[in-house]
Amino acid sequence: MKFSTKAIHAGQEPDPSTGAIMTPIYQTSTYAQSGMGEHKGYEYARTGNPTRTALEDCMAALENGRYGLAFASGLAAEQTVLSLLSTGDHLVACDDLYGGTYRIFERILSRYQIQTSYATAGSIEEYEKAIRPNTKLIWLETPTNPLLRLVDIKAVAEVAHRHNLLLVVDNTFSSPYFQQPLDLGADIVLHSTTKYINGHSDVIGGSIVTSNKEVYDALKFHQNAAGAVPGPMDVWLTLRGIKTLGIRMRQHAENARIVANFLSEHPRVEKVYYPGLASHPDHELARRQMSGFGGMVSFQFKGTIADVDRTVRRLKIFTFAESLGGVESLACHPASMTHGSIPREIREARGLTDTLLRLSVGIEDAEDLIADLDQALQEP
């Protein structure tokens, strides 16, 4: 099946008992058993739920993987992947990454003597140089959050596997519609399904996909043992959203292209970060690695933080809010919002300054989005 057909049908056969086309919401905490060790595949809803199984199977299909797992949030999915590490282990991560991920690395893993080294996102040499005898995995975002840098997944996978390491790729920004890291050599793909997968800003969730049975068994054990699982209603909402993922991503990307071109010519904008622009340093890698450039655009504002604040207060269609990937357009100030947990000196050294704005470009009419940005960016 092609992508959008899988999004609508994978793991979502008509209900065998009633013929219902839509996967039912199995709102139950436990399941009847006919005798000791005899049941219909489900015993307790933390361990498994038929609605959740449908989402897990669908996510695996979309990422061309064998096994999927669903979680109560993207960070719950991240924490489950990190459960593969033990005290004294080490990991290598790209330097530009979500603030919540950095917070886990530096304020939670460090308490268990698990250390993290950071490599410049696009430098394959730095990933290899950062590897130590106790390194267990490499962690990537591509495109990165919020500077939209690209990492060559295939090249880093070759480095990881040469050293017997696992490669983990956060594919949230791209979605499986535009990029499928397992096909490029990654061992584990994760998503905040809150974002593009659900696409309607009405549910929190996370997902992991892998084709490695040993890794899957370890992650599945942790999912059940730690219990950060989504409820059936949240899963059902995500399944509902996922059906339109393909058509939504095409419109997100088309609108983002128009917005990026507009911003790149605006006198109050210093720099635009969007891999679809020919001026982006990773544009050719994006063309090879992705089938589209996504719906995220970041830009450096000419002026002060007060000018940024004045601009976001003027926005009428773009909503000033955290998160991304919904059908509505959002504007975010990473330094004070999504990346506020990263110390200023580290943020600024990586290029994330107080005058950077990140846009999640929605699927509204592009002309209205441009008009909104144009009026908001006018001189005081």
SSE inventory with pairings:
Elements lengths: L2 H7 L40 H13 L4 E5 L2 H9 L7 E5 L4 H10 L6 E5 L4 H7 L4 E7 L11 H10 L3 E5 L4 H4 L9 E4 L14 E5 L2 H14 L5 H11 L2 H20 L4 E5 L9 H7 L6 E6 L3 H10 L4 E2 L9 E3 L11 H6 L6 E5 L5 H11 L4
Parallel strand pairs: 2-3, 2-4, 4-5, 5-6, 10-11
Antiparallel strand pairs: 1-7, 6-7, 8-9, 9-12, 11-12
GO molecular function: cystathionine gamma-lyase activity; pyridoxal phosphate binding
Family: Belongs to the trans-sulfuration enzymes family.
InterPro entries: Cys/Met-Metab_PyrdxlP-dep_enz, Cys_met_metab_PP, PyrdxlP-dep_Trfase, PyrdxlP-dep_Trfase_major, PyrdxlP-dep_Trfase_small
Would you write up a description of this structure?
- The protein is α/β, with parallel strands linked by helices and 380 residues long.
- It has 2 domains: 3-242, Aspartate Aminotransferase, domain 2; 245-376, Alpha-Beta Complex (Aspartate Aminotransferase, domain 1).
- The chain has helices spanning 3-9, 50-62, 74-82, 99-108, 124-130, 153-162, 175-178, 213-226, 232-242, 245-264, 283-289, 305-314, 344-349, 366-376, and strands spanning 67-71, 90-94, 115-119, 135-141, 166-170, 188-191, 206-210, 269-273, 296-301, 319-320, 330-332, 356-360.
- A 7-stranded mixed sheet has the order 1-7-6-5-4-2-3, sandwiched between helices. A 5-stranded mixed sheet has the order 8-9-12-11-10, covered by helices on one side.
- α4 (99-108) links the parallel β2 (90-94) and β3.
- α1 runs antiparallel to α2 and α2 (50-62) runs parallel beside α9 (232-242).
- The modification N6-(pyridoxal phosphate)lysine is found at residue 195.
- This is Cystathionine gamma-synthase.
- One of its GO terms (molecular function) is pyridoxal phosphate binding.
